[in-house]
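Supplementary Note 2. Why include the ligand at all?

Several targets in our set were suspected to adopt different conformations when bound, so apo predictions alone were not considered sufficient. For every target with a known small-molecule partner we therefore ran a joint prediction. The input for zinc ion is given below.
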Amino acid sequence: MEQQLKELQTEALAKVEAAEDLKQLNDIRVAYVGKKGPITEVLKGMGKLSAEERPKMGALANEVRAAVASAIEAKQSALQQKAIQEQLEKETIDVTLPGRPVRTGNAHPLTKVVEEIEDLFISMGYSIAEGPEVETDYYNFEALNLPKGHPARDMQDSFYITEDILLRTHTSPVQARTMEKHEGRGPVKIICPGKVYRRDNDDATHSHQFTQIEGLAVDENISMGDLKGTLEVFAKKLFGEDREIRLRPSFFPFTEPSVEVDVSCMCGGKGCRICKETGWIEILGAGMVHPNVLEMAGFDSKKYTGFAFGMGPDRIAMLKYGIDDIRHFYTNDVRFLKQFSEHE
Amino acid sequence: MFVSYKWLSEYVDLDGMPSKELAEKITRSGIEVEGVDMLGAGIKGVVIGHVLEKEQHPNADKLNVCQVDIGEEEPVQIVCGAPNVDKGQKVAVAKVGAVLPGNFKIKKAKLRGEASNGMICSLQELGIESKLVAKEYSEGIFVFPNDVTPGEDALLQLNLDDEVLELGLTPNRSDCLSMIGVAYEVAAILDKEVKLPEIEVEEAAERTEDWIKVSIEAKEDNPIYIARIVKDVKIGPSPLWMQARLMAEGIRPHNNVVDITNYILLEYGQPLHAFDYDRLGSKEIVVRRAQDGEQFVTLDNAERTLSSEHLLITNGKEGVALAGVMGGANSEVEADTTRVLIESAYFNGQRVRQASKDHGLRSEASARFEKGVDPNRLQAAADRAAQLMAQYAGGQVLAGSVVAGEIDLEPKVVSVTLEKLNRVLGTNLQAAEVEDIFRRLKFEVKTDNEEFIVTVPTRRGDITIAEDLVEEVARLYGYDHLPTTVPVGATYPGGLTDYQEKRRTVRRFLEGAGFNQAITYTLTSEKKSQEYALESREPIKLAMPMSEEHAYLRLSIIPQLLGVVSYNNARQIDSLALYEVGSVFLKESGAELPTEEEHLAGAITGLWEENLWQGENKAADFFVAKGVLEGLFAKLGLLERVAFKKAEIAGMHPGRTAAIELDGQEIGFVGQVHPQQAKDLDIKETYLFELKLSPLFTAETEAVTYEPIPRFPSITRDIALVVDTNVEAGKLEEIIKEAGGKLLKDVRVFDLYEGEHIEAGKKSIAFSLKYFDPEKTLTDEEVVKVHDGVLEALKEKAGAELRS
Ligand SMILES: [Zn+2]
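The joint prediction is reproduced in token form.
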């Protein structure tokens, strides 16, 4: 009997070893380890054994069973691993092939610049004020200290619709309108972005339509030092921490004193083509709001002072991205538009 | 304004300050120096030569062989091609070894067999612009006056060792349209004195008033008119130094009398006119408005038709000068002129501007009158001109001037307090510092209890109010010295309005969905302005458009976007998704301004999804465009309130266009461009949408509130319906929703079939219905009850049968 069991074990182990898949293995399990298997058959003959040998045989039978079971288990795990291995091999892909593209679009470069400026000033407590692109002569010129016949009107030849209605030449009328709404009570802190129009022939540096963004702060005790400090924050944020600004006296009818503001060039003052060898780049015009403008909008110019500044996002975007032709902004060549998709 | 450094230094001690440094100081104090031009830059070895002999070149008709004394031991032989070269002339000679502009080196040469050791130069060859060279020398070499010595540096004689600063003047600083004005500015910056020219006029016994009478009929246009007369003048070239200065400042020399008037214009900023007294045609000057249609020939020999908007100087009968703009041909100073009448007047700026604009005659003179001249310089300018004509044209000045009219010569008094100065500038200036700045400006100042009472000279007509004084102080104190602060005071939150936030949300959504933002022109052609308009109105036209293409305000964004599609398609860019947010302009009868309506427009064409190697390309179609909009409406919390309804819109595909309604109000459309239109524009199949933003942004929406995550399972039932082909899915969905009631959570189309396996004129459309009760697990009985109701309603209202 012992002999029989050992033979069974050898036979079963050999079959386990030879099994090629889980099904065969399962058949082996049923055949050898199951209740109706040959081991059970052998044990049926135990009645002929002595009482001494019976437990020995029982133990041996259990050993054989265990050995076969464990071999099956080992084999099973090996086969499973092999199956996974095969699956993995079958599923292997070329990871260097391109991924499925995700559609992305992006804002127009002018919008990017405008939003960056808006957000900066919002963080300093400003609101965004907007107004009509078709304006009255009054708000576009007269309320800004530019009466009819004023020589400075030449500076901005305009598109008139009727004698009194025109396409705004700057976003300053929004300032006048907003101040009026405040009915002489400060503070007013606004940023006015928008499209503006001038009679220019379109070329690399001129466009009959362009973008402007202006700012206005009116309160008691607003000083020119405040203007300087505010613009310094602006320049550092927009162009970089290492940039400096300088103010040069200038002339605008709606401010007095008036200044042009230069930002130091990225060449670090050494002089280059962009700054025309001066180390400085003109980026905006500014000044203290002219008392006539304050008074016309209903503010007491003895009590209130204010500063205003204005700049062209077209020019700023051209400087920032090195764009050489303003017409690109309005042609909308997708190869141009898509260049501004990256986060900065 | 061009400013000669050497000339300027006659009025202000510049201490030899390098021109670049001076330019920087002027720029930083308020007048931008746009450039510094080194005259004679790149020129070396040009001397005065004396043409001793001139002989015809033996082998060339147009060449002469000259022997020229250039101050060396032996004369040199130079072959010269200039038509005006002649024996006895003093000329500029570029010696062998000399360098001319453009690094042109002069070498020993043989011209047609004759040795040539140098070159006789024209002014153009010395770097002077052709338009500045006196007419008599414009086609040949320049001939110097006889008092120059051979071998002398010709550049010095021509003032070509000078430097010229180009000032970019803002409209308020017309005081710097004169050398004296610039001198005051520079003196203030450098804290120096101004040396004015000394005027000494030797007068003859005869009196001007016996020769001429002046009367002014248009006193508003011409408050004052001063006339002086110089007799016995001899017309000839002006002195070389004067010609050189005029050229350096951009004015072409003519003759001594004309050059002197131009010289005074530059020196004092006062335009003068010189008449030939004998050609005036009378002994009087009458200043009046021209008559409408009056004819007048200006000295450029152009016949001009005047209007009553123009001011005319007449001899009592006919015009002799268009005031402040140009003299008449009839009274022009010519070579034989012997008696000159000098006009020094104040003409109203607007009057001059009108005439110079109407006749396209902008000149140095008109520019100055337009901005207003200094009334205190009228007499000095006339006197100085008379003096120079005596000196350089051999004339005799008649006694006195004839002055008609009068003008206020009193300087303005403007005050500002120290407190205001410091408050506006944010500074802590002391009274003495402020007084010192006014002293540098040569403004007389009295200080009374920290208030500065400033007498502003008439040359600074731009200073009228306290703020102007603040600016003078600030710019001379230096903006670099201002403190750097930010506004303090009441703080209050800034930020975007709800509308502005939503606009950004829309932009971000579309960009996330793959759209690029475009910005196109507001101005368009008449045809395009009306195409695709959501509301048809008469388009608004510019009074004076610059071109047909940009003459009208747009009523829709789409035509411009189609232009962008066409532009890109023409450059082999076939797949595009673009959007634009911008205003359209609706004329309102009765209102002053048009209504500006902000619209969102989009265009999609080509492939929407592109995955080359996996071969899964998806072309843009109607449902792509609609899906984007549905996503957008969902983002705005409005999807349930939006409906798409089949619509016909000009320029759109009649079977593939839907009007979009929000709460039953039409707000825009989406669809395919009409194939004919696409063909005309040469674009590929393109889908478009345009929407009004305001109704979307102002619609009341419910605040987002948390809804519990479902705890009970839902039950899904799929149905395939057979209906007539013209039954719209939207209609079926409506029926299902109505009949499904509260338990119906969701309904979706998941299949559409038309074809051979179905009866002609019918289609099969499959819906997936999801039933759900948030309170409990639904039982089959409950679902069956509702679902049967749905099927019944479909059959009854749409003739829908279940597909077997
Ligand atoms: Zn630079």
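Residues A 265, 267, 271-272, 274-275, 279 surround zinc ion (CB under 6 Å). The first helix of chain A runs from residue 2 to 18. Comparable summaries for the other entries are listed in the accompanying table.
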